[in-house]
Amino acid sequence: MTEQLKDGYDVVVVGGGAAGLSGALMLGRARRSVLVIDAGAPRNTPATGVHGLLAREGMPPGELLERGRAEVRGYGGQVVTGAVTAVDQADDGFTVTLADGRSVRARRLLVTTGLVDELPDVAGLRERWGRDVLHCPYCHGWEVRDQAIGVLGTGPMAVHQALLFRQWSADITLFTHTMPSPTAAESEQLAARGIKVVAGEVAALEIADDRLVGVRMNDGTVVPREAVTVQSRMVARSDFLAALGLQPAQHPSGMGEHIPADAAGRTDVPGVWVAGNVTDLSAQVGGAAAAGAFAAAQINADLVTEETRRAVDAYRNPFSPQNEADVGELVSAERRHGL
After folding, report:
1. Fewer beta carbons within 10 Å, N or C terminal of the chain?
2. pLDDT tens-digit profile of 13-66?
3. Which domains does the chain have, with CATH numbers?
4. Confidence (pLDDT) at 292
C-alpha cells in the first residue's frame, strides 16, 4: 500500500541512510515537518556489521537503519520507500518528483543519497565485494587481521593502501595491475615494510568453497590470498539534481566525484544541503550521521531566519496582502504542529 504524502513539508530528505535519518531525527525534534524518501539500496548492504560506531559495534546495517526509522517516526517524521527522479525550483522551495509519479513540495532539501562504488573489471571482484574483497582498513581491517591480503593497484593511492593494511597483517602483496609504477621512494617504503610487489595485470580472483583463495594473473600464475582490498571509484548518486544546476565535481582526493558543499553541508543552490558520502567520499557511518545532524541544525536555523524576517515584515505592516498570506501560512504550520 502506498503511503499518503502531504502536499508540502518543511524539509524533504532524499536518502535514508545514517546521514539522512540523523538529519531527519534532528529536524523532527525541532518540530519540523520532515519526509525521508529512501530508495532502499544502502552502500553497506553487503557488510555483515557496522564497525567503528560507538555503542553499535558490529550491528547489522539493516538493524541500525530500522532503529533509525523508528526513531524518526517517533518524532512525527515520515519515512517512505521510493526513488527521487527530479527536483525542480518552485515557489518558496522545491518540487520533488518520485519514480511512481508522486510529487511533494519542500521548503528545504537535504540530500543524503550516498555514492556508488565503481569496481575494476576483474572477474569475481563484484561478487565478493563486502565479503573478502574490501576497501577500507578501518571498516574491515580487524576482520582480516593476520590474513594473506592482496592489494589490487588501480591508481596512485594503491601504495598508501598497501602501507595502511600492513598495520593489520604482515603478509601483504601489492599487485600493480593498472596503477602507475611505484616511485623509487615508494619501492623503498614497500620493501622496508616487507610488502611484496607482483607486476602485471590481474585476470580474476580464485574462489573455492565460497571463499577467496588466490589472485590469478594474466599469465595464469595464481598467488594465494585470503582477502583482497581495492580502491573503488566513488561516484555520488545525484543525477536527479541536474535541473537545479548541481553537478558532481572531482573530489580533491582524486577518488571519485562528489557534490561540493561548505563545512555545514550548504551547496551552491540556496535551500539545498548535502551530507554523508554524497559530498564526503571518505565518511564512515558515524561521520555521516554527525554530518546529517549538523546540516539539519543549519537548515532549521535557516528556516527560523526566514520565518523571523516574515514575522518582522508583518509586524511592521500587518495589513499588506502578502504579509497576511505569510502570517496565515505560519499560523497553519503552527496548528499542524499543535503550537
Report:
1. N
2. 999 999 999 999 999 999 999 999 999 888 877 778 888 888 899 899 999 999
3. 8-117+233-333 (3.50.50.60), 120-230 (3.50.50.60)
4. 98
Check if the beta carbon of residue 128 is closer than 8 Å to that of residue 210. no
Write the CB contacts of 326 (distance below 8 Å, at least 6 apart in sequence).
Answer: 310, 313, 314
Per-residue DSSP letter, 180: P
C-alpha distances in Å from residue 339, one per residue of 28, 327, 330, 334: 14, 14, 11, 5
Q: Is 182 left (phi over 0), alpha (psi -120 to 50) or beta?
A: beta
pLDDT band per the 50, 70, 90 thresholds, residue 4? confident
CA dist 20 and 23 (Å) reads 5
> Distance between CA atoms of 212 and 228, rounded to whole angstroms?
8
pLDDT tens digits, one per residue of 86-105: 999 998 899 999 999 999 99
**Whole-number pLDDT of residue 324:** 61
What SS3 state is found at 78? strand
The grid cell for 60 is: 547489522
